[in-house]
Amino acid sequence: MAALLRVDDLYKDFAGLKVLKGVSMTLERGHKTAIIGPSGCGKSTLLRCINYMETPTAGHIHLDGELFGETQNGGKYQRMSEKQLARQRSQVGMVFQGFYLWPHLNARDNVAIAPMKVRGMEKRAAYELADAMLEKVHMSHKRDEFPERLSGGQQQRVAIARALAQQPKLMLFDEPTSALDPELVGEVLKVIQELAAEGISMVLVTHEVRFARQVADHVIFLGDGVVVEEGAPDQVIGAPKHERLRSFLKQILEH
Ligand SMILES: Nc1ncnc2c1ncn2[C@@H]1O[C@H](COP(=O)(O)OP(=O)(O)OP(=O)(O)O)[C@@H](O)[C@H]1O
Ligand SMILES: [Mg+2]
Q1: Residue 243 pLDDT
Q2: Alpha helix stretches (DSSP H) within 27-106
Q3: Fewest beta carbons less than 10 Å away: which of 22, 29, 144, 205?
Q4: Do 135 and 194 meet the contact criterion of CB atoms below 8 Å apart?
Q5: Residue pLDDT, tens place only, 60-75
Q6: 13-18: which pairs have CB atoms within 8 A and are 24 or more residues apart?
């Protein structure tokens, strides 16, 4: 069976700035890859290319054996229509550093809206799904609250529930805890850990290297747009080979 996610030789330039310079990775079903690396090395760009929020300059993505974001005609690739893309993208749940909840909707409505709008789910089924997802992130008690009355950690958990409500094949997390006050980080990491234990496939960009070591089965150190080092967490984080990775870890772990 094809891998769940295959990233082949991905390049991304922004107006002449070369950000990704040939990144490849594979994720099997149920696996968890953590991506670490210094600020500006291209981690967010990589995640955004994976779900085609950014169009790669070169290289291709396959999700569950299907070409993602593009159509292929003979040897020619073309970005697919936004409509086709929206359908494909609903297979990928994305959680950002900022939570981007709808301010005028309560927690339940925030989670239920996409299944209704994107997948045409009936209201009752969508709210049942929303309630189940809010329970998964331990937010049932706040389901009628609006975002402004939730803490950052609670908002992020609602954002995770919202992504899960798409019933995605793959979850992408881009530094989901870096906008949070330190005392709120733990509750979000706990939820991610629970999802990982449940067997949800994920790619997680994080600067929480201790967490990455616990939760991931594969770690990629991205430096300046290329994979500098990758492997088992105990090896990459516990026994790094490259000097750049060693100094990066030293800096992070000293804080
Ligand atoms: N839309 C854009 N237009 C132009 N340049 C961009 C754009 N998005 C990202 N970049 C540049 O690409 C580089 C990589 O950015 P990216 O956000 O992927 O880094 P990162 O590894 O996620 O960093 P951080 O750890 O700070 O989040 C940076 O130099 C950034 O300025
Ligand atoms: Mg980033």
Answers
A1: 96
A2: 43-50, 82-89
A3: 144
A4: no
A5: 999 999 999 999 998 8
A6: 13/57, 18/225
The pick from 11, 17, 49 for probing ligand 1's pocket by mutation, whose C-beta has the most ligand atoms within 8 angstroms, reads: 17
pLDDT tops 80 at residue 255: no
CB 64 within 8 A of CB 169: yes
**Three-state secondary-structure class, residue 185:** helix
Residue from 228, 159, 199, 241 nearest 27 by CA:
199
Average pLDDT of the chain is 95
CA of 117 to the centre of ligand 2 (A): 29
Task: Kindly report the pTM of this predicted structure.
Answer: 0.95
Ligand nearest the Cα atom of residue 17: 1
Is residue 42 in contact with ligand 1, taking CB distance under 6 Å? yes
12 lines ligand 1 (CB under 6 A): no
Q: Is the pLDDT of residue 118 over 90?
A: no
Q: Domains of the chain (ranges plus CATH)?
A: 1-91+171-255 (3.40.50.300), 100-167 (no CATH)
Residue 223: its pLDDT value, please? 95
**Confidence check: pLDDT of 204 > 80:** yes
